[in-house]
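Lab notebook, page 48
Experiment: co-folding of the full assembly
Goal: obtain a model of how the components sit together before planning crosslinking
Operator: M.T.
Materials (sequences as entered):
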Amino acid sequence: AQKVTQAQTEISVVEKEDVTLDCVYETRDTTYYLFWYKQPPSGELVFLIRRNSFDEQNEISGRYSWNFQKSTSSFNFTITASQVVDSAVYFCALSERSGGGADGLTFGKGTHLIIQP
Amino acid sequence: DVKVTQSSRYLVKRTGEKVFLECVQDMDHENMFWYRQDPGLGLRLIYFSYDVKMKEKGDIPEGYSVSREKKERFSLILESASTNQTSMYLCASSFPRAGTEAFFGQGTRLTVV
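Observation: model returned without errors.
Model output:
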């Protein structure tokens, strides 16, 4: 069965610090997809990134970067020079190819990130 | 802008009431989902639907049912609300391709008293 673990329940840093959110996953499929979502206080989950299992290239988007390592089954998310607006709950999620996209995402329990001014 | 709209942000219902949570999407997505979010538990899938009138149980379907009479609308039904169903409910939709991202509504915070 698939599983996503986000061991960090809550992280608090001071603005401008770099912060890394950890995500470890388990799956038996060779084809799968990993996601990161952001949930600000307003409640709506916002899609940040998707990675498929055949693409281990790291990605950078502005202050955000993602490190995908199949060898350790990890898909970590780093925010560089954090800002107060980054404060949110961040979810890592997994989808397996065998589900055809129709059986939903398996989410981690989320990491509550607090950026203090 | 793509949109998933849930009919209520906040609801307070009494134990034993029948409760309807409504969700509408305007992206012509085949797939629709209902999740429940609880502190320390993350998001858990209640039900999903991959076509009109089709539904599949998720991880925690007990106490819930769903209805999808039109492609754009997916309803979650609590047949007899109980206090342990007090939670945040999130609706989502997506295309049926594997690996496609899901789009979420703003959530409905349901309190059962």
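Interpretation: Chain B touches chain A through 33 residues (CB under 8 Å).
Next step: discuss with group before ordering constructs.
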